[in-house]
Amino acid sequence: MNATGLRLAFAGLLAIAAGAAFQIWGKPPPAAFPPLTGATEWLNSPPLTPAALRGKVVLADFWTFTCVNWMRTLPYLRVWAAKYKDKGLVIIGVHTPEFRIEKNVDDVRRSAKELGVDFPIAIDSDYGIWRAFDNHYWPALYVFDAEGHLRHRQFGEGGYEHAEQIIQQLLEEAGVRDLDRRPAMLEVRALEEPSDALALSSPETYAGHDRAERFVSPGGARRDERRLYEFPAKIALNDWALSGPWTVGGEAAVSADRGGRIAYRFHARDVNLVMAPSTRNAPVRFRVLIDGQPPRAAHGVDIDAEGMGTVREPRLYQLVRQRQPVVDRRFEVEFLDPGAQVFSFTFG
Quick one: fold of 199-347? Predict the structure, then answer.
């Protein structure tokens, strides 16, 4: 992890093991609610200010719509927003993009609708709010009391019971009576299920040249140059490679023609890919294989049993969801049309 905001792929495991939220090094957290003037736009709400929020308990949640770790926190945010809204809780989703594909407000709006994010969203494409909070992580959660003082912060997955208890405590401090102290009832969608910690041995892996690791195609990657890549004779666990025509840019590898393939040897229940078409309204068809065969019962929500899927918009695509037992397997995608942008692999 680094100060540019790498996602905490394994942070949730630490939080769950500790049974509580956790703190991460850096400057002291803001003692009072920072300004929200860095927002370039607001969704689901008129612009909000710390002054206008005085008297409310406020939860500021930093997110970006391709982040699987944030998606696993979303069931809690949705249910807290519904349960405590009339009691004085305001949740603000601060959407700060990691990749350039997450800067388009129409895509943020579409993703919010699809994911059920109906609380206020501050569009933070210029990182103004991110810097005001001195934040470094997705997801990150900050809870302020009715006087605007920071009372809790946590990063990554986990710590949900503790966070809800703090919300309840701060609402009662603000004068709420007869608060239902039972944990809110969750509704968890397929992409939001927690990772299988015992089966997870593969880390988030970036396909763009700037942060790519363990890339094993012969000759390595050449930035911003179209070339034919080849798979090596063997791909070891957590190594990955390209085959066929690709252009590897700073953030993404782009299939330059039909037949571009990408392979990864993984050990996890789930395989997700953050992808986007290079051109809007130009979908890219693809086929997924596991150990050279169609995934059948191991297919994710974004492909069928034969492994067929289509990249239509920028987002995270769940391509594999295995049943037990989980073992080392080779995952491969062949793109049947040119123009697929592949940003990162994530696992669960």
Answer: Jelly Rolls (2.60.120)
